[in-house]
Design a protein that fits this description.
Layout lengths: L3 E8 L6 E7 L5 H5 L6 E7 L3 H11 L4 E7 L8 H13 L7 E6 L1 H13 L5 E6 L2 H7 L4 E6 L2 E8 L5 E4 L8 H18 L1 H15 L3 H21 L14 H11 L6 H18 L5 H13 L11 H9 L11 E4 L5 E4 L4 H12 L1
Helix pairs in contact: 5-6, 5-8, 6-7, 6-8, 6-10, 7-8, 9-10, 9-12, 10-11, 12-13
Length: 363
């Protein structure tokens, strides 16, 4: 089967702007991929799960280049500085120069670490994203957030660094475990909740098609998600304002991930529960109607995701949320909802109300 380009869009960041190409069999389209690689040196970064499935196909598409690879262990628990050094080791051992390109072949962990390595190696080299999970296709591969975790907080060490292109081959989702597919759907739902109520309604009607991996439904959901994110990133690249809306559910979710131990809950599972918590807390503040909260919980559940957090305890939850990038001047900011499609970043809520809510939700 020849490659088929289903959709293309652009992240408009001026001279740092780049295209997102969505299609089938794009992993084999050497002409397309090579058009974003300015020199002969390519380092493919992948992991022990994705590598056996797709590494040789990407290597074959890049025939004629000096192609090397580094295979990382798979899992959020390996997204740290120690494992990051394996990328630098491979680049230095093979004498890669500052004209080289790193290619991130995998999910969000691979993409975040590859992008951070590219930002740091010789003070900045090219990289492209070739995301193979739904979560990375609709969220982490777009927007230039890169980095690693620290034992005290998720994604606390990193850089904003944009790729040269994002190449999304939806056929890679055919090998994705059901649990990982559901995790990606959390980020898809997020876009509807933030500012796209029409898309939220479409998801309510088409969730089963997505979970059955119907190519038309997947392509539409990925394109719509990427378009929603690209518009926000173009307006606020470094999260000085509006981009923080993309963290809906994430402050609660990151607390779950850190508190449970990285890898116990998938990122998307934690975000799914976190979005339900944000909706419930918004209702507690009088911002959101009960029937809207119920719609959120139904859609998250229909995606195969948890709608409630683990019982970490209110004090532990609050301590973990205090170590968050959205804390400013000692005040925690949350992304909360005034309804479906109406999100706001705010610190304007009583701390006692949050404590009471966490006692009920997480105790």
């Amino acid at each position: 089967m020849a490659s088929t380009l289903l959709a293309s869009l652009t992240v408009d960041l001026g001279e740092r702007g780049y295209p997102i190409h969505i299609g089938q069999q794009l992993l084999d389209d050497g002409e397309l991929i090579r058009s974003f690689i300015p020199s002969s040196q390519v380092m493919i970064v992948t992991n022990e799960t994705v590598g056996p499935l797709y590494l040789e196909r990407l290597r074959a598409a890049l025939s004629g280049q000096q192609v090397e690879s580094v295979v990382l262990p798979d899992g959020e628990q390996y997204k740290n500085l120690e494992i990051l050094n394996r990328i630098f080791d491979a680049l230095l051992e093979r004498r890669f120069d500052r004209g080289c390109t790193l290619a991130a072949l995998g999910g969000g962990v691979v993409g975040d670490m590859t992008g951070f390595a590219a930002a740091c190696y010789q003070r900045g080299v090219n990289f492209i994203q070739v995301p193979t999970t739904l979560l990375s296709q609709v969220d982490s591969s777009v927007g230039g957030k890169t980095g690693v975790n620290h034992p005290l907080g998720k994604n606390m060490i990193g850089a904003f660094y944009q790729p040269k292109a994002v190449i999304i081959d939806i056929d890679t989702l055919n090998t994705l475990p059901d649990r990982e597919l559901s995790a990606g759907l959390a980020e898809v739902i997020k876009y509807g909740l933030i500012n796209d109520p029409e898309f939220f309604r479409w998801l309510e009607q088409n969730m089963e098609s997505l979970r059955r991996r119907e190519p038309g439904a997947l392509a539409h959901a990925i394109e719509r998600s990427c378009a929603d994110k690209a518009a926000i990133v173009a307006e606020d690249e470094r999260e000085a304002g509006r981009r923080a809306l993309l963290n809906l559910g994430h402050t609660f979710g990151h607390a779950i991930e850190t508190g449970m131990g990285y890898g116990q809950w998938l990122h998307g599972e934690a975000v799914g529960a976190g979005m339900c918590m944000a909706a419930r807390f918004s209702h507690l503040l009088g911002w959101m109607k009960e029937d809207e909260v119920a719609r959120v919980e139904r859609l998250v559940a229909a995606a195969g995701l948890p709608t409630a957090p683990p019982k970490l305890g209110a004090e532990r939850f609050e301590a973990l949320m205090a170590v968050d990038k959205k804390v400013q001047g000692g005040r925690l900011r949350l992304v909360l909802l005034h309804g479906i499609g109406k999100a706001e970043v705010t610190a304007d809520f009583p701390p006692d109300a949050l404590h009471q809510f966490l006692q009920e939700a997480a105790a």
